Amino acid sequence: MGLAARFLEERGFSTVVLSPTHEFHRAVGIPRTAAIEHPYGRPVGQVGDREGQRKVLFEALSVLEKAKGPGEIWHLPFTWPEEPKKTDWQPREMSPLIKYYLEEIKEARRRMGDSRSH
Question: What is the pLDDT of residues 78-91, one digit of tens each?
Answer without folding.
Answer: 988 887 677 665 66
